[in-house]
Write a structure and sequence with these properties.
Chain A is mainly α. Chain A is built from seven helices and no strands. In chain B, helix 1 packs antiparallel against helix 2 and helix 5 (113-143) runs antiparallel to helix 7 (159-179). Classes of the chains: A mainly alpha, B mainly alpha.
């Protein structure tokens, strides 16, 4: 996940993570209030303008954006097949706008800053017995495990290729699960020592 | 001895990560041309391995991370907007599906690898396929304004791929039952 953040400084890097999240939430919800193709087209153009303004920082996300465009085209084609081409265009424009904003957020905001915002947003739940710090710790652990999954998968795949000359594919799913469960148990042991009682 | 709290933290995070990883893996195209993602396999595995309570927590954690804006859904989507998209019914169905899979797995026999695999097949078919698709169809009808018939036929094309995932889930459970004989499926080890 860390690789998605761009170190190439842009104007959006200077905006606080909390403000960016609020704007994303407001704009994301607004997208679903309007059904007019022209309004959504204007929204998509605005999002595209914002994305382009980030310049070279968008380089790591261009492949992802291509996938979003292909998905948008597929959605439009599917709705056209169902005799609702306009609905398809509206859905595709919403997807494109929301994706552009989401990608811009991820390119210009560190995961840790997002987690800090999450923890402060969840802090009112402390009054009801939900520990916001524990929840933020779980999100951080989740991101760490996500990276660890790829590392373990690569190791197993390399070993499989050496033995058979072919990629492992789904055959690696079971050994990967066992390895990850063992890793999680080790993490649980470490947490047991570090967490307050 | 590791407490239930620390192991809960670790396993819940692990399975939330597994669902996220399956979202980052490129989609698979069936011979029919129907694209399938692996995220529902993560839902099935969470239910079978963790049981209802922790599987539900894992999927809620995953959805919380998506809501914050992390691009963890297939195609790199994330943010609050995905919860009001036409496919959001499936997304909201993830924790419900994990809960249903876990509940069934907790009741079905799992005392031998073979029985655990058969139980996982049944639990994942009910929780990971039926429950998620019911939620998905409701979402398609309410948000994409499709008719019930259109939504039903639309969702049906994904069922063959999902049934393959049920078989994969059962195979993984079988291997885990052999590789980690102490593991109690459906959350029984966490009581």
């Amino acid at each position: 996940m860390g690789s998605f953040y761009s170190d190439h400084r842009t104007w959006l890097h200077a905006v606080s993570a909390s403000l960016k999240l609020i704007l994303l939430a407001v704009f994301g919800t607004t997208l679903y209030v309007f059904n007019s193709t022209w309004v959504l087209l204007a929204c998509a153009a605005l999002c595209l303008l914002l994305f382009v303004s980030l310049g070279r920082a968008t380089l790591p996300a261009r492949k992802l954006l291509f996938l979003v465009l292909v998905t948008g085209l597929l959605i439009t084609a599917f709705h056209a097949y169902l005799q609702q081409p306009l609905l398809g265009v509206v859905s595709a424009l919403r997807l494109l706008s929301a994706s552009l904003l989401g990608i811009a957020l991820m390119l210009t905001t560190r995961s840790n800053d997002l987690l800090d915002v999450l923890e402060s947003l969840l802090s009112p739940l402390n009054r009801f017995g939900v520990k916001s710090s524990a929840l933020a710790l779980q999100v951080a652990l989740m991101l760490r495990f996500t990276e660890h999954f790829f590392i373990q998968w690569k190791r197993l795949d390399d070993a499989h290729r050496v033995r058979t000359g072919k990629p492992g594919g789904f055959k690696l799913l079971a050994p990967l699960t066992i390895r990850m469960l063992t890793s999680a148990q080790r993490v649980a042991d470490a947490l047991e020592l570090r967490l307050p009682p | 001895m590791t407490s239930s709290r620390s192991s809960g933290l670790a396993y819940v995070s692990l399975f939330a990560a597994l669902v996220a990883v399956f979202g980052l893996i490129p989609k698979i195209d069936l011979p029919l041309g129907v694209p399938i993602t692996l995220q529902t396999l993560g839902v099935m595995l969470a239910g079978c391995m963790l049981g209802p309570k922790r599987a539900l927590q894992a999927l809620l954690l995953f959805l919380a991370a998506v809501a914050v804006g992390l691009p963890l859904l297939s195609g790199g989507r994330g943010g609050l907007g995905v919860f009001v998209a036409p496919s959001s019914g499936y997304l909201i169905g993830f924790p419900i599906g994990a809960l249903a899979t876990g509940l069934l797995m907790a009741f079905l026999p799992a005392n031998t690898p073979r029985r655990a695999a058969i139980s996982a097949l049944v639990a994942s078919a009910v929780g990971g396929v039926l429950a998620i698709h019911v939620c998905g169809v409701i979402g398609l009808v309410t948000l994409a304004k499709l008719s019930w018939t259109q939504a039903f036929w639309g969702t049906l094309v994904f069922v063959p791929g999902d049934l393959i995932k049920c078989v994969l889930c059962a195979a993984v459970v079988h291997s885990v039952a052999r590789g980690l004989p102490d593991w109690r499926f459906g959350g029984r080890s966490f009581q």
